[in-house]
């Protein structure tokens, strides 16, 4: 069955579902009452009963069409209805009572595990960490503005050489979070007290001669689906805006042990969907009249605007790649399973990934090295090796480029000795986007079953997003969900067979590619490659820009290859060093409120 069939007319959808369940429940009652009657009725009663069954089966058949299952004859349809009431529904209810009372998928993970590994071999032993490159001649700038746009390795050098303290650095970024949030709407909570406590501890350790590594004393932000005790974890939703989870997310533990300093919980689109949240809609620092797109809106916008040196976001289907591309930052969506997700709101246990938003590919490499590893409470996480991207000989790589690749990147890498070739990743599976959306929506509904059943979806910030999709997911048959996973397996095998290069370069926001990459579990790094003028600028001298980016893709567990190529490109270009014009838009430019140009939220693309 083609999953594209699961796209009813949105205007009639809610009404159709209501009719479906009313008819189903009514006919189950009618049939159950009929079979309970004694056999002592006269011939007339028997005929009326038979006619009622025929009518009931006919009406149920209309409901079965929504399941693409109207091939049963009338007697089988009535038999199914009886069995559903007597056997299936009690099982459903018992299971929900066990595991679905709480929303968010924080507990009781599925035992069905997705492994993206292509070789079939599990990693042996704990993978080694790689060493931080040595920096020299890095001096503390005089202006806080210039400090705010230094990369993590540079800031780490300033701290290690005691040119600045973590507490001073924390003050700078806390000030910027407060200063620019009213414009960008990108911060949910400023964790000021915690930040100063962690910064003070980092300074004390350094005073004792203990340096924890490149993240020692470095401020950062977390997407607000990641739990931190003592602070709200709102999931961006009006329904959960006062929620405090008494648990430490695994990724937060990793960063804390590395000496990093949490300065803010950053905006996630409501329930990790797009850029609309209960406090507004997050804007793009490069053009404040447009929005970030993608649910990792806060991490992308805050990193771009110099409000944090780096941030941790998440992706299920484009939530990192889209805002990274829009806001012009470097971001790495790693191989699925690289980073543990305990304490993180779950959409889909076989699709969700955590990764860093940074200024440079080098920062992405070291942050991923810190946060990767097997999380004992996340069954999908593994000790995936991350080879040292700084030691990769790129002249031995063959890199493909797609038709939509940014040719400047191709030409730069070619000039550095990389063997670049035209490339097309072929596969025959034609329902990739449908597989992704069906998988994501059904998994999400399993984690927010109570939310829908209790009517909390009526308070959701954008009714054409999760509420609409999850109502449709309610009637996806289990058999067709599993068929979608089989089709996903076929896709993975075909991609593996036809991935004939070490990496390839292409548009990071092509929707088909976003779906394919997430279903396969492959890594991609989004790299800024330039700028162009915005359409319809408010003045001739406006400094607003549209960012140009590209994606560098590698096979699963080859994140180091994508990182190495991005490192090489950024070593001879400076697009990633540019600063958005949030302080100086240009002569005669201003921030319209409301914006003149409205960017619609992501729609379901099948």
What's a quick, concise take on this entry?
By secondary structure, the protein is of the alpha/beta class.
Secondary structure layout plus pairing:
Elements: H1 10-36, H2 43-65, H3 74-99, H4 144-148, H5 152-160, H6 166-184, E1 187-190, H7 192-207, E2 219-223, H8 250-257, E3 261-266, E4 276-277, E5 280-281, E6 283-284, E7 287-291, H9 297-304, E8 311-315, H10 321-327, E9 330-333, E10 353-358, H11 361-371, E11 398-401, H12 407-415, E12 419-422, H13 432-447, H14 449-453, H15 466-473, H16 478-498, E13 503-506, H17 511-520, E14 524-533, E15 545-553, H18 559-571
Parallel strand pairs: 2-3, 2-8, 11-12, 11-13
Antiparallel strand pairs: 1-3, 4-5, 6-7, 8-10, 9-10, 9-14, 13-15, 14-15
Helix pairs in contact: 1-2, 1-3, 2-3, 6-7, 11-18, 13-15, 13-16, 13-17
Describe the structure in your own words:
The strands form three sheets. An eleven-stranded mixed sheet has the order 1-3-2-8-10-9-14-15-13-11-12, with helices on both faces. It is 40% helix and 12% strand. Helix 1 packs across helix 3 and helix 6 runs antiparallel to helix 7. With 606 residues, it is of the alpha/beta class.
Give me some keywords for this one:
globular, 12% strand, 606 residues, disordered N terminus, eleven-stranded mixed β-sheet, alpha/beta, disordered C terminus, two-stranded antiparallel sheet
């Amino acid at each position: 069955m083609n999953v594209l069939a699961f796209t009813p007319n949105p205007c009639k959808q809610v009404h159709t579902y209501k009719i479906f369940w009313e008819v189903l429940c009514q006919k189950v009652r009618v049939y159950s009452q009929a079979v309970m009657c004694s056999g002592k009725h006269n011939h007339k009663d028997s005929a009326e009963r038979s006619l009622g069954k025929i009518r009931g089966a006919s009406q149920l058949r209309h409901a079965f069409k929504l399941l693409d299952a109207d091939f049963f004859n009338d007697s089988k349809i009535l038999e199914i209805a009886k069995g559903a009431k007597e056997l299936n529904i009690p099982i459903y209810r018992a299971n929900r009572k066990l595991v679905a009372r709480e929303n968010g998928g924080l507990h009781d993970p599925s035992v069905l595990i997705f492994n993206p590994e292509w070789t079939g071999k599990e990693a042996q032993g704990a993978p080694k960490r790689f060493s931080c490159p040595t920096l020299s001649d890095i001096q503390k700038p005089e202006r806080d503005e210039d400090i705010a746009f230094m990369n993590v390795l540079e800031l780490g050098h300033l701290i290690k050489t005691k040119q600045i303290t973590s507490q001073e650095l924390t003050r700078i970024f806390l000030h910027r979070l407060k200063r620019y949030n009213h414009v960008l709407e990108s911060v949910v909570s400023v964790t000021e007290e915690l930040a100063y406590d962690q910064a003070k501890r980092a300074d004390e350790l350094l005073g004792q001669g203990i340096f924890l590594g490149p993240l020692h004393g470095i401020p950062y932000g977390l997407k607000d689906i990641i739990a931190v005790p003592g602070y709200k974890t709102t999931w961006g939703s009006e329904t959960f805006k006062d929620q405090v989870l008494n648990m430490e997310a695994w990724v937060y533990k990793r960063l804390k042990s590395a000496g990093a300093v949490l300065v803010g919980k950053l905006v996630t689109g409501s329930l990790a969907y797009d850029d609309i949240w209960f406090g507004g809609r997050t804007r793009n620092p490069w053009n404040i009249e447009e929005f970030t797109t993608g649910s990792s809106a806060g991490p992308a916008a805050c990193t771009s605007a110099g409000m944090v040196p780096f941030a941790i976001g998440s992706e299920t289907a484009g939530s990192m790649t889209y805002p990274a591309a829009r806001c012009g930052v470097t971001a790495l969506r790693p191989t699925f399973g690289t980073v543990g997700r305990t304490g993180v709101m779950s959409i889909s246990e076989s699709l969700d990934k955590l990764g860093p938003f940074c200024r440079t590919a080098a920062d992405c490499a070291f942050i991923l090295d810190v946060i990767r590893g097997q999380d004992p409470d996340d069954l999908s996480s593994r000790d995936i090796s991350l080879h040292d991207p700084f030691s990769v000989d790129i002249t031995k790589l063959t890199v493909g480029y797609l038709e939509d690749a940014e040719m400047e990147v191709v030409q730069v890498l070619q000039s550095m000795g990389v063997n670049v070739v035209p490339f097309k990743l072929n596969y025959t599976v034609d329902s990739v986007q449908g597989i992704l959306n069906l998988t994501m929506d059904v998994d999400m509904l399993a984690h927010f079953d109570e939310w829908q059943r209790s009517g909390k979806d009526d308070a959701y910030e954008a009714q054409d997003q999760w509420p609409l999709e999850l109502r449709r997911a309610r009637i996806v048959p289990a058999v067709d969900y599993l068929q979608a996973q089989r089709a996903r397996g076929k896709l993975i095998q075909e991609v593996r067979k036809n991935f004939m290069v070490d990496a390839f370069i292409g548009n990071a926001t092509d929707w088909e590619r976003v779906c394919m990459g997430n279903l396969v579990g492959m890594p991609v790094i989004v790299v800024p490659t330039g700028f162009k003028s915005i359409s319809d600028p408010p003045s001739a001298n406006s400094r607003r820009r549209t960012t140009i980016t590209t994606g560098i893709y590698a096979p699963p567990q080859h994140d180091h290859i994508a990182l190495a190529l991005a490192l090489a490109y950024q070593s001879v270009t400076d697009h990633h060093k540019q600063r958005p014009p949030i302080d100086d838009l240009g002569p005669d430019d201003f921030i319209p409120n409301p914006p003149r140009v409205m960017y619609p939220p992501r729609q379901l693309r099948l």
